[in-house]
TrEMBL record:
This is Disulfide bond formation protein B. HAMAP family: DsbB. The chain crosses the membrane at residues 9-29, 41-59, 71-90, 141-161. Disulfide bonds join 37-40. InterPro entries: DiS_bond_form_DsbB/BdbC, Disulphide_bond_form_DsbB, DsbB, DsbB-like_sf. Keywords: Cell inner membrane, Cell membrane, Chaperone, Disulfide bond, Electron transport, Membrane, Oxidoreductase, Redox-active center, Transmembrane, Transmembrane helix, Transport. It comes from SAR92 clade bacterium H455. Residues 28-45 are periplasmic. Belongs to the DsbB family.
Amino acid sequence: MNLPNNRAISLIVAAACAGLIAIAIFYFQNHLGLEPCYLCITQRVFVIAVGVIFLMAGLHNPAAKGQKIYAGLATLAAFGGSFFSIKQLWLQGLPEDKVPACGPPVDYLFDAFSATDAISMLLRGDGNCAEVQWQLLGISMPGWVLVSFVGLAAVGLFQLLRK
């Protein structure tokens, strides 16, 4: 069985990441009116990072050593995004009395605080991140994003270990 080459896989995964972001913005945010919380935005950044790494790998089409570097970076980014998906799932599972307070909108964070402070707040999450706004088959949005990150990490590992 002939598997697609590294370039084709990289470009397909980059397109899949672009599709995930498009669905998040155009369907969930614009059509359904769901506002992304701090951790949602952080997860989007990691999906974009994975997509950009795979796009660079596809456009560059490096030799084996370069492909392994791109695959390793993409896998690390997918693991990073997984961490924030798990963190949001943990917040969603907290009892109501343990949920942290809700913070200000993201626009305000970057207007009122330094970039490092605003990013730190984004990475911590807040009470808004504990709210389950949407589910499919009993799994909330960060659960599905985690499934996506696991798939992206699996492709990255496949590319990394591929001969």
